[in-house]
Amino acid sequence: MHDRVTHHSWINRLQTLLLIGLLLGISLLAGWLLFGKEGFWLVILASIVILLVEPAAASRLTLKLYRACPIAPHEAPELYRIMAFLADRAGLAHMPTLYYIASPMVNAFTVGNRRQAAIALTDGLLRCLSIRETAGVLAHETAHIANGDLFVMGLADYISRLTSILALVGQILLILALPSVLLGYAKINWAILLLLVFSPYLTMLLQLGLSRVREFNADLKAIQLTGDPEALAAALAKIERVSHSWRAWILPGWGNPEPSWLRTHPATEERIRRLLTLRSRHSGQWPNQPISYRVHSPRHSSPRWYPGGFWH
Asked: Model confidence over 73-106: pLDDT tens digits?
């Protein structure tokens, strides 16, 4: 199993480098076509600044947005035992802080970086999954931290935003130049025009593709941490089933399959299939029983809505 995991990991790393290179290349091209050498170096300088500066405020803002509260070790000792084991296996110098979200939605996410990370778990997830399945989910989130996914995806997001800003500036300049074009004093550069139209969409698709690759890589890393692919597969199946019922209730008519290239995550069926191909006789070291926890937190709040839809 180890050889297959290593093989898949190398493929995912190469795909990540390719996608990041394409994202940066589109941004550099946009800067060059719009502002010449100055625009090219501006994009490089902005990318270097992004590499050197990892904003911590975004992590705190995300946790505050979801009204997450930290889980004390005595409130969920089983979770902390699992987390300590996973952090040690992943080689993390600092164990991620666990946060609790009082929501019936079944969800988990990670914010921060290797030095200061936080993993948030909803009440719905803790009630829905067994200890073994939760260990699989925590291993997946720990893998994101160990693999540097938070930084990679943050970098991709900033490059995508920079490209969109360049495209917007170019569109404004084009509008300002329309009188000269109509009077015949200037000509339209069709290469720049096409770039202005399509570059934001291209970077969005590349960013989505990068996200899917990193999710597969986190699944593989989670297997290395736990040695129990069936635990994560069972958790994914259960989360998908529960989430589907929530979405069908909140959004009637939901359920039509979306194109794979528009997903932030790979299809759950594909993730489960890949995980089960790596199964072993080892059944995991954590039991299939509910988690015992008691967190002092505000009462459940209904799912909140933002311009992109309900969070999940």
From this structure: 999 999 999 999 999 999 999 999 999 999 988 9
Domain count, the chain: 1
Q: Is 299 a domain residue?
A: no
Cα 276 to the center of its chain, rounded Å: 22
Of 141, 258, 269, 270, catalytic? 141
Question: How much is the mean pLDDT over the chain?
Answer: 80
Domain enclosing residue 18, as ranges: 2-294
Q: What is the mean pLDDT of residues 137-162?
A: 88
- Provide the residue count of the chain: 312
Structure token pair of residue 128: 């829905």
- Contact between residue 230 and residue 279 where contact means Cβ atoms under 8 Å apart: yes
Spatial CA neighbour of 145 closest among 78, 214, 201: 214
Residue 6 lies in a domain: yes
Would you call 141 a catalytic residue per the annotation?
Answer: yes
Task: Name every residue whose Cβ is closer than 8 Å to that of residue 237 and which is 6 or more positions away in sequence.
Answer: 268, 272
**Tokens encoding 228:** 């129990």
pTM attached to this predicted model? 0.76
